[in-house]
Write a structure and sequence with these properties.
- With 186 residues, this protein is mainly α.
- The chain is 45% helix and 5% strand.
- A two-stranded antiparallel ribbon has the order 1-2.
- α4 packs antiparallel against α5.
- It starts with 9 loop residues before the first helix and ends with a helix.
Length: 186
Amino acid sequence: MLDRPEQPDLRASEPVARSRASRIIRTSVIITLPVAAIVVAWWATRPAPQVTTSAGAADHAARGISSGDSARPITLDVEGARRIGVTFAAVTEEPLGREVRTVGQVVVDETRVRTITLKVDGWVERLHVDYTGQRIVLGAPLLTIYSPMLVTAQEELLLARQLMRDVAAGTGETRDGAADLMQAAR
């Protein structure tokens, strides 16, 4: 018997071709359905064109007035116009007076406002700036405070200085200890 190369079985490749075709169809459907849904939603929600039905509505549209239900032309007789205070006058060209009366509000320029807070316990003994809006000069005192915490720190610093003078002739270790105490008090 002669050895012949085997012929591939075409029936075995049919399921592969079918699965490939079904994947292509499935992918096409997955992509097409959302796109179609988006198009339908856009078509259904687009604004309807506005149609004007009267010359009055076109006049309002030309003046920038909306054509809703509230924008309807009104006709007043002379008596009705007088009752609500409508007046008429001929147009003339005259110089405008210099006096203009208006209403305004004066406020503080908040970009120039600074908040000052104390970082120690205590109370204000004297206030050098005594009204809102008072101009101050850089370096000028704003207030005088009394703080028991600061008084205690000041006394510690003075005692550390005295100790430095007292141990100036002492050993190196005592001088180093006094210097550390001075630095901590400062």
